[in-house]
Structures are given as C-alpha cells and as structure tokens.
Amino acid sequence: MAERIIPPSTYYRVFAVLIALTFLTVGLSFLPIGVWHTVGGLFIGAVKAVLVALFFMHLIHGSKASWVMIGAGLFWLGILMVLTLTDYLTRHWLLY
Amino acid sequence: MPVFAQIQFQLFPERASTTAERVDALFFFLTAVTGVMGLLVTTLIIYFAVKYRRRSEHDRTPRILGSLRLELIWTIGPFIIFLIMFVWGASVYLAIAQTPDDAIEIYVVGKQWMWKVQHLDGQREINELHVPVGRRVKLTLTSEDVIHSFFVPAFRTKIDAVPGRYVQTWFEATKTGRFHLFCAEYCGTYHSGMIGSVHVLEEEEYHAWLDRRAEGSPALEGRKLFLKLQCVSCHTGDAQGRAPSLEGLFGRTVVLQDGRRVTADASYIRRSILRPQADVVAGWQPIMPSYDRLLADEKEGLGQEEAIIRLIAYIRSLDRDQTPVRTEDFPPPEVNPATSDKMTR
Amino acid sequence: MSTVLEHVPQAVPPPAQPQVHYLNVAFGVRSWLLTTDHKRIALLYLVSVTLMFFIGGAAATLIRLHLMTPNQAPGSGLLTADNYNRMFTMHGLIMIFFFLVPVIPAVLGNFFLPMMIGARDLAFPRLNLLSWYVYVSGAVITFWAMLRGGTDTGWTFYTPFSTKASHSLVVPVLIGLTIAGFSSLFTGLNFVVTVHLMRAPGLTWFRLPLFVWSLYATSVIILLATPVLAMALVLVAVERLWGVGIFDPALGGDPLLFQHLFWFYSHPAVYIMVLPGMGVVSEVITCFARKNIFGYTFVAFASIGIAVLGFLVWAHHMFLAGMSVYASLVFSALSYFVAVPSAIKVFNWTATLYKGSVWLQTPLLFALGFIGLFTIGGMTGLFLAAVGLDVHVHDTYFVVAHFHFIMVGGTVMAYMAGLHYWWPKMSGRMYPEGWGKLAALIVFVGFILTFLPQFVLGYLGMPRRYASYVPEFQVLNVMSSAGASILAVGYVLPLVYLIWSLGYGKKAGPNPWGATGLEWQTPSPPPPENFAVTPVVDRGPYEYASSGEIEVIGGGVPEQAAQAAVQEESHGR
Amino acid sequence: MADKSAVLWHHFDDLSHQHEANALGMWAFLATEVLVFGALFTGYAAYRFSYAEAFEEASSRLNVLIAAVNTVVLLTSSLTMALSVWAAQVGRRRMLVWCLLLTALLGTAFLVFKVVEYNEDYREQLVPGLAFDPGKWKDTNPAHVQLFLAFYYIMTGLHAVHLTVGIGIVLFLALMAWRGAYTPAYYAPVEMWGLYWHFVDIVWIFLLPLLYLIGRHELSDLHL
Ligand code: HEA
Ligand code: HEA
Ligand code: CUA
Ligand SMILES: [Cu+2]
C-alpha cells in the first residue's frame, strides 16, 4: 500500500497533548472568566479535533479528495450556522 | 346569457391599499422583464428548431465550442437584471416592514380557526375587521395555538401570526368596501374556513361604527363594569359557567322557571340585575345575588342607573364568542411590541 | 483562430448482437432481489418510482376533482376537509420523497452513470442494493401510516402544528421519511466515490458527460443536506412523543428553528430534483442537435454553482414567518444569485441548437418542453424571491404553480425525455415514435392548462391547502381540473406503449440515435459487465461535429477553458 | 494470508483502488455526519445566544467530573484504535486483536459512566418531563433551562447511539482480525471504521465544552 504509516511514537505524543488539553479546558471552567468559558472551550476543542483528524485519522497524509470531503462538511456546517444566526442575531434590530 | 352573468370571473385582484399599488408596480415590472426574456428564449428555440431541422441522416454540423463573450453577456446581463429585481423587491418590503407611528393600532389573535380582532378601545370582532379608509392601520398579531397567516389579497398584505410572539404589519386602505380576509398558513382541519372580511368604511361611518361600542361609549364602560363586578365569573361565555351566557341575549325570548315567556329587553335585564330572583331562567339555580345598591361608585360619581344603562348597553352589544375570559388571556401588551420582538423571554 | 482536431466523429462499429446481456444473464425472483448489478437495481427503482408516481397522481386526481366546486357548505364536496388535508399531504410527500428525489438519479443515474464513465459498476454495489431496500422499507412504513389515516401536516411539517395540534399519525410518517432519506444518502455516497475513482482511463473531469456532472452536484447536495432533514424530522418526532419543547413557544422554543432546519434541506432538495433533469437535457439536446454543447465548462460549473449557492437561500420560504427583516433581505439577494447559473444553462442549451441538425424526436420534444416550462417556472421563482412581492403571493396558488412548473413541467418532462432517449439501451427495443410524439404533445397541452390558471388564482389571492374557496375562484379551478385530466392521459399513454414495446417494439441497435456517449458503445441491452473491454477515452463527450473546424460565434474568443480542457488533459485519473 | 481474489470486488482494478474507494466513502459519510450533529449544534447555538444566562446556569449544574473522566476514556480509546490500525498495517495480528478489544472496552466504559451520570442527573432533578423541579431555578427561567437540558440529552444520546454502533463494529473487526482476515495488504475495514471511531471521539470533544464548560463550576460541586 502506497500509504505512509504513522509510527506509534507519534500517536503517544499526540495522545499526551490531547490529555493535557483536556485538563486545561476542564481547569478553565473553574475560573471566573465569563464568556471566555465558551470561547476558550471551543478553541481548545478545535485544537484537539484537528490533532485527532490529522494524526489519528491520517488526514495529514490523506488524499486530496478526503480533504475536500471533510472540508465540504465543515464549510456547509458553517453555512448552516452563519445563515441561521443572521436571523436569530438580528431579530431585535429595529427599522426605526 | 343569465348563466354567464352568474359566473363570477376575475383575472386580476382588486387593488385597495397603498401597498397594493407598490406591489402591483413591482409585479408588472417583473412580468414585463420575464415576459420579454421568456419570449426571447422560446422564440429562439422554435426558430432554431425549425430553421436547422434535420433534413437528412447525413447533415453536417459545425464544431462550435462556445464563446466567452456570449457567456459573460448572459451571466452578467441577467445578474444585473436580478439585482434590480432584488432592490425593488427589498424597497417594497421595507415600506411594508417599517410600521408607522401615527397609525391606528389593532391587535389580532389567530386561533384554530378564527381571527379574533381587538381594537385598542376595547371592541372585539371575530373574523371581521372594520377600518377607516385613508388611515394607516397597524396590526399586531399573535396566535394562541399554531401558526396562522393574516392575508388580505386586496391589500396585498400578509403576515404569519406566530404563537409566543408578536409580529407587526400595516396597511392603508384606499377604497371602501368589503374585502376577503384569508388564513394563508396551513393550520389544520378548517384552515380554509378561517376566513372573514375586512370592512373599509368612510371616516364618519367608521366613527359611527366605533361609537356603537367605542371608548367612553356606554357599551365599553359597561364591559368594564361587567369585569369589575365579577359578573363574568358566573356568566362565562361557554357552557361551563354557573350562569347562562349573555351573548346574543338582547331581544331574544327567554323561558322562565315558572313557564312565563318574556322578551329580554332593557327592563328585563334591569330587573335581572336588581332582583334576580324575580325572573329565574328555566334550568338555572337562583344563585345570582341582587346588585341593588351595589352598583353605584361614589368615587367615580357613578350612579346606579347609569351603571345599569352601561351594563345593558354592553349586554346588548355582546355577540357570539365575545364574553371576556376571566383572566383576559390575550390583553394588549403594555410595552410597544416592536421592542419585545425578540423571542419571548 | 481555428484549430483542427485529429478525430472526426464516427459512427461506432456495431458489435454483434450479444448472447448474454444483463436481462437474460440470470432469471428468477432471487436473481433480481439479490442482484448487485447497477442496471438491475435501476430497473427495480424504475418499477417502484413508477408505482409511486401513479399513487401520487391518483391523489392529485382526487385533489383536482374535489376542487371543481367551492365546497363552501360544510360537508359538501368530494372529500371532507380532513381528508382533503391528508390527500395533499400524501400527494406532496409521495411525489417529492418517493418519486421526484429518487427518480432520475436512482433510475437513469444508476443505470447510466457507470456506463457513461466506462466503469463496470458503482463503487459500492451492495450499498446500492441496500439503498433500494431502505427506500422500499421507508415507503412501506409511510404507506402503512397513510392507510391507517395518514397525516395532515402538509409536506412541510410545520411546528407547532405537527408537534402539538395534529391528531394524525405524524410520527410513523416521519420515521418512514427518515428511513427513505438514507436511501438517497446511500445513492449519493455511491455516486460521489464512483465519479472520483472509477472513471475510465483518459476520462478526465472535463471530458465527463454533463449528466455525470449534474449527478455529481446532486450527490453533493444529497450528502450535505439530507442529514439535516433527518435531524429536523427526528426532533419533531421527539418533541411530539415527549414534549421536550425544542420548537414549542410555550416552553421557550422557537417554531422558526424547525423551519430553518427543514428548509436547509428542502430548498437544496429542489435542486436535487432539478439538476439531474438538467443533465438529461444536456445529453438529449446535444445528441438530437448533433452538436457540441455550447460552453461546456460553463454548463458544468453551473451545476456545481447551483449545488453550492443552492444552500444559501433556504429562508426565502420564510420571508413572512417572523424572521428578522435583515435576514429576509439577505436571503432575497442570495436567491437571485442562485438563479444566475440556471440562466447560464438555459442560454447555453438554446445556443447549442444554433446551426445544429435538429431532429425532433420524442426525447427532444420533451427536452424542449423542459426548457420552456422550466424557464417559466424559474422566472416565477424570481417573483417569489422579491420579498415585497412574496408578501402577496406567499402560500397562494402562485407558489403551487411555480413549483409544479419546475417539478412537473421541468423535471418530469426531463425524466420522460431521458426515459425515451435511453429506453432502447435499457430494453433493447424502440418505443413507437408516433405515440411518443403524441404523448409529448398531450402532456404539454395538459400541463399548461392545469397550471397556468393557478398563477392567476394565486395572484387573485387563493391560498394553497384550501379545501374550500370563495366562488369567484371557481372558473379557474375548473380549468385547472380539466387540464389535469388531459395530463393524466398524457402520463398513462407512455406507460402503455413502453410496456408494449418490451414485447413488440422494433429491436434497437447499439446506437439508434448516433450518440457519442460511452453508454452507446456497447450492445443494447448491455452485457452484465457493461463493456467487453474497458474503453479508453481520448476526447470530449459531445464530439458530434462532422468537421474538425472550430467555428467561432459571438465575435469573441472561443471558450478557451473548454478548449484547453479538451486538448490538454489527456492523462488518466 | 487472505485470498486476494476473495476480498477484491470484481469491478475494481486492484486492492489499493478498492481501499481508496472505501476510505473516500467513509470520508464522504463523515461529511454527512458532520451535518447530522451540525443540525443540533445550530439549534443549540440559536438558543445559546437567546438564553445565555439560563444555559450557563444549567451547564454549571452538570457533573463535570464524570465528563472529564469520560473524555480521557474516549481519547484513550482513540489511541488504541489508532494503534490497531498501525498493528494492521505492519501485520501484528495479536496486537491488532487486543487493541480492538481494548477500544471496545473503553467505549463500553464510557457508556457505563454516562449511565451513572444520567442517573445522577435524575436524582438531581435535571430531567425535564421525568424529574424536574422548576423551583430550583431562582435566577433563570426554568423553561429555558429545560431547553438546555433537552439539547443535552438529545446530543449526548445521539452520541451514545453512535458509540454503541461503533462498539459493535469494533467487536466484529476484532473477531475478523482474530480469524486472520486482515493483512498489511488488506486492512481497509480497520482503517475505515477507525475513521468512524475517531469521528465519534471528535464529536465528544466538542460536546464537552458546549454542554459542560460554558458556565463556571465551583470546586465544591465536585463532591470529591
Ligand atoms: C425543482 C424544484 C424547484 C426549483 C428548481 C426552484 C427554483 C427556484 N425557486 Fe422555488 N420552490 C419550489 C421548487 C423549486 N424552486 C417548491 C417545491 C416550492 C414550495 C415549497 C412549499 O412551500 O411547499 C418553492 C417555493 C419558492 C419560494 C417560496 C415561495 C413562498 O412560499 O412564498 C421562492 C422564493 O423565493 C422560490 C424561488 C425560487 C427561485 C428564485 C428559483 C431559481 O432557482 C430559478 C432559476 C431559474 C430561472 C430564473 C429560469 C431560467 C433563467 C432564464 C431563462 C434567464 C433569463 C431571465 C431573466 C433575465 C429574467 N421558490
Ligand atoms: C414531484 C412533485 C409533484 C408532482 C409530479 C405533482 C403533480 C401534480 N400535482 Fe402536485 N404538489 C406537489 C408536488 C407534485 N405534484 C407538492 C410538493 C405539493 C404541496 C403539498 C403540500 O402543500 O403539502 C403539491 C400540491 C398540489 C396541489 C395544491 C393542493 C393544495 O394546496 O390545496 C395541487 C392542486 O391542484 C396539485 C396538483 C397536481 C397535479 C394536477 C399534478 C399532475 O401533474 C399529476 C399528473 C398525474 C396523474 C394525473 C396521474 C395519472 C394516473 C392516473 C389518473 C391513474 C390513477 C390511478 C388510479 C385512480 C388507480 N398538487
Ligand atoms: Cu389559520 Cu390557516
Ligand atoms: Cu426554495
């Protein structure tokens, strides 16, 4: 198989980072930081997700087509969210 | 010929509001543009199909791959036309969405399957709406159950009544007469029966209509008394009440317990209030207390008879389904609904 | 500026009539029900969707019969109000989810996508068979529910009516539809992977037939939209069963959230329904005009453009639903953007006829019918997308007419075009041409008579989903019902003669139309493996021209991208 | 060694072609899965913006300790899944079987913890419809708290369903691996379902902050 094989040592390192990030994000929730709970949590979550996708899911060596697929999924999720929120976030806008 | 005369046939709806003029102008513009484009396309197709029809099995055809210039023309050309359509449509819409401040305010509640209209001065109507010609009218709508949609074709006015929130629209009628009112959002079995009419009246007529039950009118004051004196706690509008419904009572013949038949006129009602035991309606318990000497209100300077007149006027005006509910389930909101437009909190 | 290409299109040497083809390779019920051959699965789908169409059509017939009279007195009319509501709900649901969404992809696409790209089968044949079984189970569940009373929510399932007020079998229908959704998901998944990985050597992206492009775009929409519908329906079911309040205003929920989720699927779904039809039309027009498609790259990218932009416009169904004014304006503008690629296609098809050798056979008649009716339907979509005008025509028969023009006048016409075009390949027999032309004519006339009056009705203000209406609307309604009966004849006719042709039709050679697609380079009906040897492709899909000369029209440079694509990209996948 | 012709379908040129198709198919499927959960995330976002206080308040009452432990469990299962793919790639059959079994075991542990947590939610009156005490919510609107909880159950429930399916598939893979079905030349199913497993993990990675971490927790809530 032409595919590149990622060695276990990489997996262990990624795993260590993931666990560290988990402790970090849970730790943050005990601090009084207001809206940053959501922002920070989602940001750390995104980093973790990217790590999992790149290494555990081999996306880093993945074919162009698989990048396109997952990119499309995320892009369309963005459309759904952003356009739905154009309604919700502007409901209280007044015209006069 | 009489057969044909009976057939009602229309091709274009009546135009009876200022909005209708704007909407129709947009409609004619769109019809013209799309008409031209549609004709262009169909003519070309038919022309090509005839001119270049196959004459033999061995027809030779050229190799035409395309033309960037043409492609650009028919990408950008329609796009510009579309932009004009958008801007025009948006401007018409903004005129509809921007509700005026100097308007008559009317509250409309949709309910399976009727429209309950409540004027600010207290009149209520069902499946009817009376408005004056040439005045702006602002509607604030909500629904008690599912989504309905308030639609007056002659005004080109439509808006969904959504449960749990208020939405607003407005119109200004330009013609007197009676116009259809439809429910346009599917709402269940009798969706198509949720129809009524909008009566556009001349200003004076409208005031006369208002006066029949309007602010300061005896009927409206009577309604307030009816609520204040708790009559409504027994005389509910439905069959569950401890007392007969008073809707449509006035002028009817009432059968009493002792077999007498009396006409429910003003004096009968007055007696019923002051000495209820005198004329007990057949089938009911004589539990109604006498209101003699309880009706006057010193602070308001209101005498007993005055109060009775008002009550009578109110009972006289009381139509089907208009008995107020004890807790007034949908009172007009105190705040300007526009500012509470966000989801209900 | 003109370039001479080496090859001149030629008629394919007809291979000898094969002994074995996909129909006679095995017999018996098992050989059909357990087949993984995409061609047989396509036929299974053909039978199922045809059945669905006639059931949905029977419901339409009842609707139109009922609407012959205003039915204003309670209890008058053919149906009760409740039954009328159930009838149009059933009509809409069957026609959309069980007929129009699968019809072209699962029948014509299933059959011809692999053949057009020179593959032996779809990437996942077993998934393909599973998709049919899933479709059938979805249909069975839905029908079971419909026979036990059905549901009366309209095909849109708006909350809170569907969650609280309706007293009908909403949940079973939702389950049936969700299951059916998986079947189109499987088909879409299969198509995407197949187009990416199974193309024959030399078949570059820009040599793909436009039907393949449109199916690819359709599949992308299916993959990305269907899951949202499934979730929306599941949430309605959950809310109805347990009252969790997600869409319930009494509990702080927002009914509009459902509409957002529903239309996020259902607007793109209208392009799921029309894109494959557009692909069919591109095939038929080029073949019967014996011409290269005009502006190949533009038509191909228009499909992708529709697939992407089609996701940005869903809330134009909600202009009056209580959405924010700002959002209404955004969605109105975006709705106009998505109309541009459709316009590009219409103009390119028209230009393709120019200097062609136009052969007015049944498939082309249907295809031209598609262009005309789709244009009218699409342009009335422009009316609806103008927010200010939608205020008046929203939820009236204007909308009903709009979508029937596109879906019946457009897609069903395109399906008929494709069915007639490929019938010789699928069955090995020619259909009777005279009858075909007659059917095309009847359908066209019946269609116009049925749905043109509905535009007038709509602008007059007749709301849709009305079991009774005010008497002034009667004349137009009677016209519409009369048209529908003509239309019925037009649809029953092909059913009869196509079945007849199976036994008595003239035997078709491998390529009765002189078409250039790969699917015509193999015997009719095709052998189980489609091709004796995997074809090697060295040219674009529509090299019909008899001279190698590139002619330039419009005064500009010839469309360079297309040219470059045809000439340069000669490597395999 | 598995017989090549037995695992190669007739319409592919060779195994690597088939492998590529399987992987791409799974990626396409995952794109749809993104939108399955995406629909819920969107609904969540709409209400999160509208009823921010209620959502934060409700979130801070959930049990963050179990959630954190579960996150670690699930991440570990992802590690073992990744290792199984590696084991398949280099042909270590015993390691493959064990890693797959471990993955399934960790997945099951996650579900068990989740049940414990649901049970605790029930005792804490956090289940709308079954056990919910509006009186406990003084500063916020209980209706909106219920909305949050509805999303909480639907999202975690759907995630649990995905995980359950995953456990079944991983067990099946383990069985096949034990029988020697996979070789360095043919291990597409392990790789393909590995992708699925990691995806389910990623979903949880986002559920953790969205459901448990948007409000502030107190150390005393942990009942350590
Ligand atoms: C296959 C189905 C299909 C297709 C392709 C379309 C295509 C379009 N639709 Fe339609 N639509 C439906 C099916 C479809 N629709 C359905 C089923 C409903 C009702 C759902 C329900 O409520 O039950 C609906 C409802 C609907 C509404 C909501 C109406 C309402 O409820 O109030 C709107 C509003 O914007 C709309 C707009 C459009 C537009 C702008 C297009 C565009 O994509 C059209 C683009 C095409 C063209 C424009 C024609 C070709 C162009 C030219 C020839 C160019 C030249 C023209 C000019 C320069 C003018 N549609
Ligand atoms: C693919 C989609 C599709 C197709 C093909 C059709 C086809 C037709 N539709 Fe339909 N229609 C919809 C999709 C479709 N429709 C949708 C989505 C709605 C909205 C539903 C809702 O509001 O929720 C709708 C709604 C709708 C209405 C509005 C109902 C209302 O709002 O009150 C009407 C009214 O005229 C109508 C008519 C027709 C007609 C006459 C046809 C004709 O083209 C049908 C022609 C076919 C036949 C006539 C069949 C011929 C066969 C026979 C006659 C044999 C019958 C057999 C037996 C009796 C055994 N349709
Ligand atoms: Cu109320 Cu329809
Ligand atoms: Cu749409």
Could you provide a short overview of the structure?
Chain C has 573 residues and is mostly helical. Helices cover 64% and strands 0% of the residues of chain C.
Q: What is the H/E string of chain D?
A: HHHHHEEHH
Describe the global form of chain A: flat
Give the strand tally of chain D. 2
Low-confidence stretches of chain A: none
For this entry, give a set of tags.
heterotetramer, C: mainly alpha, 64% helix, globular, D: 224 residues, mainly alpha, two-stranded antiparallel sheet, 2 strands, 2% strand, elongated, binds heme-A, binds dinuclear copper ion, binds copper (II) ion
Task: Please provide a written account of the structure.
The complex is a heterotetramer of chains A (96), B (345), C (573) and D (224). Chain A is mainly α and 96 residues long. Helices cover 70% and strands 0% of the residues of chain A. Chain B is an alpha+beta fold and 345 residues long. Chain B is built from eight helices and 13 strands. A five-stranded mixed beta sheet of chain B has the order 4-3-2-6-9, with no helix packed on it. In chain B, strands 5-11-10-7-8 form a five-stranded mixed beta sheet. In chain B, a hairpin with a 4-residue loop joins strand 3 and strand 4. The radius of gyration of chain B is 30 Å and the shape is elongated. With 224 residues, chain D is mainly α. In chain D, 75% of the residues lie in helices and 2% in strands. Chain D contains seven helices and two strands, in the order αααααββαα. Chain D has a two-stranded antiparallel sheet with strand order 1-2. In chain D, helix 6 packs antiparallel against helix 7. The chains are: A mainly alpha (96), B alpha+beta (345), C mainly alpha (573), D mainly alpha (224). Chains in contact: A-B, A-C, A-D, B-C, B-D, C-D. Strand 1 of chain B pairs parallel with strand 1 of chain C. Bound molecules: heme-A (2 copies), dinuclear copper ion and copper (II) ion (CU). One heme-A sits at the interface of chains C and B.
